[in-house]
Each structure stands twice: as C-alpha cells, then as structure tokens.
Design a protein that fits this description.
By secondary structure, the protein is an all-beta fold. It is built from no helices and eleven strands.
Length: about 130
C-alpha cells in the first residue's frame, strides 16, 4: 500500500524555520517525483518545490526559492522541505505528493500528482 506521511508542521514566529518531512512507503522512490504543495484557506493549492528522485534534480518557484529547499534523505525514503525566514503568508496546510515519473524535470502542477499525503499544518504568526 502506497503511503505518504507528512510531519514537522507547527506554529512558528515570523522569521523562524521549520523542516517538513514526507515519509514514503509502498513504492520505489527513485521511480517517482515528489512535490511539496501548500494550500491556504480560500486559495488554490500551489506547488512550492519538487524533486525528481531518479536524476536528483529539483525545482523551486521564484516566490520561495531563496527560503525553501527540498532534499532527500541519503539512502532513505524521506523527502524534506526546509523552510527558512517564514512569513505569515506561508501559513497553510502543506502536502507532499507523488508522481510515477523518471524524467529530469518535475512539475508544480497539482493535477500531475495522483498520490497525496494527509497534510501538515504550518502557521506563521507572532
């Protein structure tokens, strides 16, 4: 059974940091792209980073590129999202998702990903 489990969310003050984890089971991670997405109340789900595990390439959109970093646990099944200098507008539910794809690029479009975790809440507030 394929399962993605996010953890690491919480309440943090503006300027703080969090590291989210996405632990994957039931699939061969090298065969998949993993994306991180977030959704704020009343807003559409948006991609904030992704990694193509077969090639080890990543992509992070400009609006968080200088603050968010995606990485993979060495020889493991966990994908991390390191988030620094957090802002109140980063508040939302953060999800990881998987796409069975061995390409060099990864997508920030949620509809490309058929497998999703349950999400973890991130709240940035003073």
């Amino acid at each position: 059974q394929v399962q993605l489990v996010e953890s690491g969310g919480g309440l943090v003050q503006p300027g703080g940091s969090l590291r989210l984890s996405c632990t994957v089971s039931g699939l061969t991670l090298d065969e998949y792209v993993i994306g991180w997405f977030r959704q704020a109340p009343g807003k559409e789900r948006e991609g904030v980073s992704c990694i193509s595990n077969y090639f080890g390439t990543t992509d992070t959109p400009d609006f968080v590129k200088d603050r968010f970093t995606i990485s993979r646990e060495v020889a493991g099944n966990t994908i991390y999202l390191q988030m620094n200098n957090l802002k109140p507008e980063d508040t939302g539910v953060y999800y990881c998702a998987a796409e069975n794809f061995r390409g060099r690029t990864c997508s920030s479009m949620a509809r490309r990903y058929p497998i999703w975790g349950q999400g973890t809440q991130v709240t940035v507030s003073s």
